[in-house]
Amino acid sequence: MQLSREELVQAFSRMCTIRAFEERLHDEIATGEIAGFTHLYCGQEAVAVGVCDHLDNNDKIVSTHRGHGHCLAKGCDVTDMMKEIWGSSEGLCKGRGGSMHIADADKGMLGANGIVGAGAPIAVGAALSLKLDGKGKVAITFSGDGACNQGTTFEAMNMAVVTKAPCIFVFENNHYSEHTGFEYAVGTNKDIASRAEAFGMKVWRGDGCDFTSVYETMREVLEYVRAGNGPAAVEFDTERFYGHFEGDPQRYRGKGELDRIRETRDCLKIFRAQVTGAKLLDDKELDEIQKAAIASVDDAVEASRAAARPTAADVTNDVYIEY
Asked: Does residue 315 fall inside a structural domain?
């Protein structure tokens, strides 16, 4: 593992913050305080952090309906995000985005998106802008295995190749497109990365439950794209610990499936085993990092409960551009 101790602490802290954020939302949504659909990212934290740890605010990302992890990994504020999900006018998007449309342009987070596959064209547009800027920055679009069947994704990949846009297509294959299994929904060739390869771009594959695999794979991908070689794609095999949305009964899961993946493919457990085994960090240090992450989320929830709500007078604000 080529990361310094400080970098490992930061990576684990971000993964723990995402996990704590999502686990707390899982509990709070059950109370009825939070309106709208919510899609949790638990289980996939290594992908978001392993990708975004290479980026700065000038690199752009576009997310999905399951976007909290990407936002937090890109540096969006925990409390401002929680306020947004709570519908507060103090939220990151003044309560207008909610769970599925969080954005923070200052951090290079161009928005989550409730439409499957809709982020890819946005990312290509951002990548073309970055190409013209000429500073070696990239745009990344995150999507799941479901988006690999969308026409928008195919069109975006083709456009990226034609224009040599510095765009990276990150496919998080968590084995389920909503409630439909990957094995059924994807055609005879189950290799999502090869679909991108068919358009003429170079592709990579990695273990999305292993932070080290994600981090090292993305280091290679980014070196390639930043050097001006055009777009690339990467497929990370990962797991989703909760349903498609909160309240999903998950009757499509096999017996014992969730217990198995939580035991054997939890990215936090895998990270802990790797760094303690290599004597890079010890269990006590890791426990303290987890406690701090939980505390930061607890504070964010309390602040969100007390935060201001939009008023009727706000309904037309920020709807139209004012010149």
From this structure: no
